[in-house]
């Protein structure tokens, strides 16, 4: 942190947490003036079932809805424009997203186009959404992305094959819902990937150049909870209490990065997702220890704190030695929950590394990384992570 800086903290107006809380969304939708909702879900059968459950909750509250099961696993500009057309044709006046980060990002982007016009590609970057979005309720069914409560949306540009980061306080959802009963059906691999996504959010926010005592508190508590509960959530996903703890962990990580931003892990992961259509959480999990091995050299004391939060014994160690323990703890957690060992296993190619690095250097998430990285540094990190 530096002196003489002011801070703005962005969070949803309302956050609903705990088993069964999804049943309250009808009332909250009415409070927001809703009459008909566009319900955005993923393209899978599971996504459509979730959307139908939300439709019935709204119906019981006397509200109408139309389902758009069009969010790709990495939501695209084309699906956003399709959803915006449906919103207008169906005369909707609220958007409700249900699922993981993909439908929630898609929903935010649909809202941008509906209220601001043009193409979603026009809004890449920071602070370009001048007219806000329609009322938005986000029902989260994974414990990782925190898209249910952030001012970020990540959309794939299908022509350039890159992920666009769109960041604006005006797209922060009105109501964020984290009901652990909706998370018990997550398979182990998805639980692992989304949990490591949350850990990446917390770590990057804690070492961000925009970190504050408020974001630090959220990030460190998130790291503690993930270190304690993620292995259990992967092994015993039916345990509602464990799911609830992971929901709190990912929400705290969201508070941290929504206000302190991120770093080069996300800048680099976005490019992998855009070029190869890879799962975001897995890309983050693989890259995290490699990027932070670079970052720890400039803020070792911060990584010593992370080591403590992950349960490492660091008494008597220097900051540098404790920082090494943090990196190893991250690697061990990923290994324990079955994260792939390298990017090559996902299909990444050596010949694409320069292009990936060039695109990563344009991603807005890099701006708050604690260490300046050159293109050569980024290529080397990608190479190590292969």
From TrEMBL:
The record's PROSITE patterns line, in alphabetical order, gives:
ADH_IRON_1, ADH_IRON_2
Protein's recorded name: Alcohol dehydrogenase
The organism is Methanosarcina barkeri str. Wiesmoor
UniProt similarity note:
Belongs to the iron-containing alcohol dehydrogenase family.
Q: What's its EC?
A: 1.1.1.1
Limits of the Alcohol dehydrogenase iron-type/glycerol dehydrogenase GldA domain: 12-180
GTP-binding as a keyword of this entry, yes or no, is: no
Keywords on this record? NAD, Oxidoreductase
Question: PANTHER family given for it?
Answer: ALCOHOL DEHYDROGENASE, ALCOHOL DEHYDROGENASE 4
Domain named Fe-containing alcohol dehydrogenase-like C-terminal is located at 191-386
Q: Looking at the keywords, is NAD present?
A: yes
Q: Which Pfam families match?
A: ADH_Fe_C, Fe-ADH
